[in-house]
Amino acid sequence: MKKRLWVLIVLMILALACGGCSSQPASAPAPTPQAQPVTLTVAAAASLTDAAKEIQTVYSTKHPNVTITYNLAASGTLQQQIEQGAPVDLFISAGKSQMDALEQKGLIVASTRKNVVGNELVLVAGKDSKLAAFDGLKDAAVKKIAIGTPESVPAGQYAKDTLTTLGMWGQLQAKFIQAKDVRSVLNYVEKGEVDAGLVYRTDAAASTAVKIVAAAPAGSSKPIVYPMAIIASSKHQQEAQQFEDFLASDEAARLFAQYGFTKPAQ
Hints:
Blueprint: H1 2-21, E1 38-45, H2 49-62, E2 66-73, H3 75-83, E3 90-92, H4 96-104, E4 114-118, E5 121-126, E6 145-148, H5 154-165, H6 169-172, E7 176-179, H7 182-190, E8 196-200, H8 201-205, E9 210-215, E10 225-230, H9 237-247, H10 250-258
Parallel strand pairs: 1-2, 1-3, 6-7, 6-8
Antiparallel strand pairs: 3-10, 4-10, 5-8, 5-9
Helix pairs in contact: 2-10, 3-4
């Protein structure tokens, strides 16, 4: 009887031991999911070209999964493309009116709209030019003056406003060569195809072939600001917001300042 009892006890101990052996090993922790690659399309004013490229490089080191693709052109042209359904995630305009038009049509996320940088309009001419002031544009020796097309190029509208304030817009009509964007204006002056041009200070600073003759007088046009906003149809709202936050950061402000951009009027 005692022998049978001991056998039962041994069998119970073995059963318990085997039960512990049959338990499944603990699962390994799940791998951390990798961020999916995303391409952001940023429609930006042509005057931002140089600064935008450096910002693209800096941002890619911080967010290697995000590729920034720029569409650089006149703000009015970019506005029309967005209105026609072009795939854009973020718009940076050189003028307020273009962003206003998109906001009125519900094409931007209004809560994301903010001014990112400011600029200044300047009169430029070739390095050897004898032009010394805005008033010199009326001289017979100045035959061609390049400006951006006012209807689509913010720099052109600022030029028109400035020359109107100075009482010279009507007098100079026959001399104007209108360009598709502000970089084209600069290019005309650099090549000597015109005697003078009106561009942003940042554009003039990027060229070794032109000189700044004069800055537009204070108050001769509305303050030059560059508003930005996320496009409502963007499929990458979160990533676009992260990039916009970076553009509004102190680090980005320092990068913009290297190219002559100023803090914007809000």
